[in-house]
Write a structure and sequence with these properties.
The protein has about 280 residues and is mainly alpha-helical. Among the domains are: about 60 residues, no CATH class; about 110 residues. About 40% of the residues lie in helices and about 5% in strands. The protein has eleven helices and five strands, in the order E-E-H-E-H-H-H-H-H-H-H-E-H-E-H-H. Strands 2-1-3 form a three-stranded mixed β-sheet. A hairpin with a 6-residue loop joins strand 1 and strand 2. Helix 3 runs antiparallel to helix 4. The longest helix has 17 residues. The relative contact order is 0.12.
């Protein structure tokens, strides 16, 4: 079994559930208490609430052993990994995918919150390689795709010609990015700021921003600011920046909870593991 894995440090009853992780020719073995698995995943819980005992090995050939070790060290120790670099965003995405394969849906949602907190600094960069990894390892309409695109549109690197590679285009990355950019433009429209000491709010009393009702039949939704006084606006001194924090929608949502998964999603994405535990 893999070294530095906490299985042996915890008492448990009965045989463990054994996972073979990584390469098919030389996989890494991890033993996990079935009692822990049943607490965190409905896949390993019987309808009566008792643990499902899995006697055959479960193979996870598309998962890196380091990712498996990190996830279950977190679950055993009840302490999430501490990440401080923007390069760790990819590590979190790998944890999310692994947790999904095992039906550990609550941890998937925690991972999204951790990624949100990690990427708050405006100087952190969400690399196109991270976005591409997510798209290559998730199905169409995965909530993780929407999640990573939201971060990429606000923390992406400067655009370079290589960014528009055929592979990125084939995956639909920029189609989805363009769609979210439209939402960010609505956020910008409601956030005018004066430049070089031009105090927009002092000179021009302003009401709240508005947008048409969802019930209105308009071909284009418009947001704007109603100026209720003052003199002519010097538009050369006005900019429309995004907030310093990550926003997740047109209403300035500051949490990614609209991308959370639920227990109802578990079986639809855990096909590989289900085949091994239900039809070994």
């Amino acid at each position: 079994m893999s070294r530095n894995f906490p299985y042996a440090a915890y008492l448990g009853i009965g045989v463990p559930t054994t996972f073979l992780v990584g390469s098919t020719t030389n996989p890494t073995r991890f033993d996990v208490h079935h009692s822990l698995l049943s607490k965190v995943s409905p896949l390993f819980t019987k309808p009566n609430g008792f643990s499902r005992i899995i006697l055959s090995n479960i193979s996870l050939t598309n998962i890196e052993p380091a990712t498996f070790r990190t996830l279950f060290t977190w679950l055993y120790e009840r302490k999430p990994p501490e990440y401080a670099s923007d390069t760790n965003l990819l590590d979190l995405m790998k944890l999310w995918v692994l947790a999904g394969e095992l039906g550990i849906w609550r941890t998937q949602n925690t991972v999204m919150r951790l990624g949100m907190a990690l990427m708050q600094p405006a100087y952190f960069v969400c690399r196109i390689e991270t976005v591409r990894w997510v798209y290559e390892n998730t199905p169409v309409k995965s909530s993780l795709r929407d999640y990573i695109i939201t971060i990429f549109c606000q923390r992406g690197p400067p655009i370079a010609p290589s960014t528009f590679s055929p592979d990125n285009e084939r995956l639909g990355i920029f189609r989805d990015a363009a769609e979210f950019m439209r939402k960010l433009n609505l956020v910008r429209a409601g956030n005018p700021r004066g430049l070089d000491g031009y105090d927009l709010y002092e000179q021009f009393p302003m009401q709240h921003t508005w947008s048409p009702s969802e019930n209105e039949l308009a071909p284009v939704r418009v947001r704007g600011c109603l100026v209720t006084g003052g003199e002519d606006i010097d538009w050369s001194k006005i900019e429309y920046p995004l907030p310093s924090f990550l926003v997740w929608g047109t209403e300035w949502e500051d949490l990614p909870d609209m991308h959370f998964v639920s227990e109802e999603n578990v079986r639809s994405v855990a096909g590989n593991v289900l085949k091994q535990i239900e039809f070994p």
